[in-house]
Amino acid sequence: MATGSGAAAAAADAEEKESGSRMITLTSNEGKAFVVTEASARQSATIRSMVDDGGCVDKGFPLPNVDSKTLARVIQYCDEHGNKEAHTVDERAALAKFDKDFIAELDADKAFLYDVTMAANYLHIQGLFALTTQCIADTIKGKTPEEIRTAFGIEYDLTAQDEEEIKEEDTHA
Amino acid sequence: MRRCGSSSGGRFTGGGGQEGRWPGFEGKGARGERAAPVVKWSHAEAMKKKPRGRGGAAFTGDGGGWMRRLEEEEAGLELDGSCWGSWSEAAATRASGTAIGGAGEHVRFRPEAEAKRARPFDAGEWGGGGGGEVGGDGGEGRMYEWRWTEAVSPEILALILRGRVDADEVARGAARVCRAWREAAAAPDVWGDVDIEAWCRRVNCRPRADAAVRRLVALARGTLRRLSAYRVGDAALAYVAAS
Known about the structure:
Chain B: Residues 1-65 are annotated as: Disordered. Chain B: This is F-box domain-containing protein. The complex is a heterodimer. Chain A is mainly alpha-helical. Chain A has helices at 4-21, 38-41, 45-52, 68-83, 89-107, 110-123, 126-140, 145-152, 160-172; strands at residues 23-27, 33-37, 61-62. In chain A, strand 1 (23-27) and strand 2 form a beta hairpin. Chain B is mostly helical. Chain B contains twelve helices and five strands. Chain B has helices spanning 2-11, 28-39, 43-53, 73-93, 104-109, 112-136, 154-161, 167-172, 179-185, 197-203, 206-220, 234-242, and strands at residues 57-62, 65-70, 98-99, 193-195, 226-228. The interface between A and B is large, with 39 and 52 residues.
């Protein structure tokens, strides 16, 4: 921190702190308001661009596609990643552990995992989206269709025509 | 219990053993026998209850112990009186089973076999409330989940599959899960960058590799950017080059 770039970083830190002290209101589709720090909200590229584009910070952001339960969980992720520093090895390890626990919890509830994935996609929270999609992909990997159905609670609804096609695929490849 | 009883057995896979053909409906065979009490309900009574019943009660079963959760107690009690008795027996015989709301209506409206086909759409409608309820409550994966079936976003699924799951696994696994997944897996962007080299080595058969390459090219529909394969014949290479 003794170098010139250190000073720049300090300035950036100060700016971040300042912006971090601003609070932003996110409203779920049930009308429940969640107040988060700006640093946390900026984890979402969607909100970040709206904040940067100006003005509407005071009014808050309605999120018609996200329900309260999902939003609460998403904010939990954003708080962890937005408000905490990840400069040292320890801090990074702590964050990685948080991610691991976070996704393990979601993994146990595939319906909720889907909601969180959709919310992460809608809000463009890259880290969270990567986390959930990777978890889903890991669940799919190495499984038969039946195992996948069981894992996600999916219903078998293939038509006779689909089955016909599948049979054909099997004979060809 | 109307909601839990009627379709739930068929709807979820109970865990271990599966029935080959209709794996998702493992409970179905067994259920067929006990479907009778449900079908006997008077439509009038059922209709009367429907609005309240939807999403009202959810059950999770775990081993022998059944837990009942009632969102609307009133509906629960009413249902309790009318049919829980017959269902509790049925339920107890199932080692593991999870019940979900909103499915009861199917049985009244259509015969079993037909319901199998027709269910996905209704399930979104009827199962929505209950499914969400139970799922949200830390329910387990074996229950039917509309979010992952007809409501699943093809774009998201394509994003998940692309680059994260091997092509041959997609073709053999994800693409055969259900209709929505099949459609999603057929999206060209899933097949833009494919590595089937490992599969080719495993199979080690030129004609099959060739056939696979042709199919991949067809699937990608002109969006193929990179294809890694092994032991592919000249004809297939020419085909790739031409497309």
